[in-house]
What does this fold into?
Amino acid sequence: MALYEHIFIARQDVTAQQVETMTEQFKGVIEANGGKVAKIEYWGVKSLAYRIKKNRKAHFSLLNIDAPAAAVAEMERLQSINEDVLRVLTIRVEEHEEGQSAMMRKRDDSERDERGGDRGDRRGPGRGDRDRGDSGRAPRPRRNEFSSEGGF
It folds into this structure.
C-alpha cells in the first residue's frame, strides 16, 4: 500500500464538531477499502489566500493515510460530492512525518510568543544587537505641506 498526506478544507460555516464528524466519515471510507489512517490533525479555521466559493476562511484538516489508490480515490469522490468540502489535496509520500506537522508546530510557537516567550532566539546570531536607526543613507528631507514647496 502507498502512503499519502491528504488535506481537505471545509466551509467556515460548519462547526468544528461537524468537521470532526466528516473526518471520521472519510476515515471510515479508507478503512472500509482496506487502508488505515495513521494520523489526523485538525488545524483550525484559517484565512484563505483567495475566496473559494464566497468563503474567506475555512477549516483545515490533515490525514496521514496508508491505503491503496482505490480507497483514496473513493474518499476524494465522496468529498467532491459533499457541499461543505471546498478543496482537497492528496500527495503521495515516501514516509509519514513523525510527530506534529509544521502547521501544528507553528501554532505552538505562536502560542508561546503570545504568552510572553522570547522570539529573539530564532533570529540568528547577532541580529538583535545591531542598530536599526542607521541604514547608511542620508535622511529624506521632510516636506512641509503648508509651505510654498509643498505643492499647494
The chain is about 30% helix and 30% strand.
